[in-house]
Amino acid sequence: MSQENRAKLIEIVATLLETDASSIDNNSSPETIEHWDSMNHLNICVAVEQEFGIQLQTDEMATIQNVGDLVTMLNRKNVACA
Fold first, then answer.
1. Total-model pTM
2. Residue 22 has what DSSP assignment?
C-alpha cells in the first residue's frame, strides 16, 4: 500500500507542476522544479488532502519544502507512504 500511495503522491506533484513523474524524487523542491511556486505549493497541499483524506494545518503546509517532507507528513498522518 505504501508504494501505491507514493505513486499517487508523485502523480499529484507531476500533474500539478507539469513535469515528468520519473524526474521526481524526495529531493524535488521549488528549487529543482520550475513550476513549484507558492500557488502550486498550496495546490499540491490541497490535492494531497483530498486524495488521502487528511487535513493539513497552515503551519504544516509551511514546513513542507520538498517531496520528502510530503512523504514524512503523510506518514505522520497515518498514510503509509514509502
1. 0.94
2. G
